[in-house]
């Protein structure tokens, strides 16, 4: 058993605590290993998480740009071309805050819920159903953007894409992470 500690530097649906605060909180209150998830794109990041007390790390965003990743070449190239400063939080995908690459399409649709989405999400009777529908639509759009060529480029990633410089085999990405 272990705890995956998803912090506020993770891609996609992330936590709201800094890696340091979350790791320390869990290490002080749990007796099982803590695996830090979020904000790891190079060896210095791994060392930082271990320094906070994490027993290991879970790395996601850098592997989007692996040759083996089952996503479009455009998504992989976006992880090379964009960086940490291009990651934005959006409520438009699933109704729950999620980090994505700030592509022209994301800029066009915006990152905040429309007034109607906001009203429906606050309605006690409709909230549950609206969130389920919004989540389904958003996740379907994200899946399509990841696996099909589309003008609706909604690509989920975290700021650790800053360290992605090339589309590489997984073994090379791992090697870069530990060197």
Q: How would you characterize this protein structure?
A:
- The protein is of the alpha/beta class.
- The chain has two domains: 3-59, no CATH class; 71-165, no CATH class.
- It contains seven helices and five strands, in the order βαβαβαββαααα.
- The chain has helices spanning 19-29, 43-52, 73-81, 104-109, 115-122, 127-147, 170-178; strands spanning 3-6, 34-37, 56-58, 87-90, 98-101.
- Strands 1-2-3 form a three-stranded parallel β-sheet, covered by helices on one side. A two-stranded antiparallel ribbon has the order 4-5.
- Helix 5 (115-122) packs across helix 6 (127-147).
- It is globular and about 50 Å long.
- It starts with a strand and ends with a helix.
- The mean pLDDT is 88.
Give a concise summary.
This protein has 7 helices and 5 strands, in the order E-H-E-H-E-H-E-E-H-H-H-H. Strand 1, helix 1 and strand 2 form a beta-alpha-beta unit. Helix 5 packs across helix 6.
List the helices and strands and how they pair.
Layout: E1 3-6, H1 19-29, E2 34-37, H2 43-52, E3 56-58, H3 73-81, E4 87-90, E5 98-101, H4 104-109, H5 115-122, H6 127-147, H7 170-178
Parallel strand pairs: 1-2, 2-3
Antiparallel strand pairs: 4-5
Helix pairs in contact: 5-6
What labels would you give this structure?
179 residues, alpha/beta, 2 domains, 3-stranded parallel beta sheet, two-stranded antiparallel ribbon, 7 helices, 5 strands
Work out the radius of gyration: 17 Å
Note the overall shape.
globular
Q: How many beta strands in the DSSP annotation?
A: 5
The major pleated sheet works out as: 3 strands, parallel
Kindly report the spatial arrangement of strands forming the biggest sheet.
1-2-3
Strand content: 5-15%
What is the domain tally? 2
- What is the helical fraction, as a range of percent? 40-55%
């Amino acid at each position: 058993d272990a705890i995956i500690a998803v912090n506020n530097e993770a891609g996609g649906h992330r936590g709201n605590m800094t890696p340091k605060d979350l790791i320390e909180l869990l290490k002080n209150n749990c007796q099982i290993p803590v695996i830090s998830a979020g904000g790891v794109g190079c060896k210095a990041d791994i060392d930082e998480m271990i320094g906070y007390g994490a027993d290991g790390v879970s790395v996601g965003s850098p592997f989007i740009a692996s040759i083996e990743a089952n996503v479009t070449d455009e998504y992989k190239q976006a992880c090379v071309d964009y960086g940490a400063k291009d990651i934005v939080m959006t409520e438009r995908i699933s109704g729950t805050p999620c980090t994505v690459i700030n592509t022209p399409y994301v800029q066009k649709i915006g990152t905040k819920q429309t007034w109607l989405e906001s009203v429906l999400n606050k309605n006690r009777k409709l909230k549950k159903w609206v969130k389920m529908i919004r989540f389904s639509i958003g996740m379907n759009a994200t899946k399509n953007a990841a696996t099909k060529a589309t003008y609706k480029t909604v690509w989920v990633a975290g700021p650790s894409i800053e360290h992605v410089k090339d589309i590489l085999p997984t073994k090379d990405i791992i090697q870069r992470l530990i060197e």
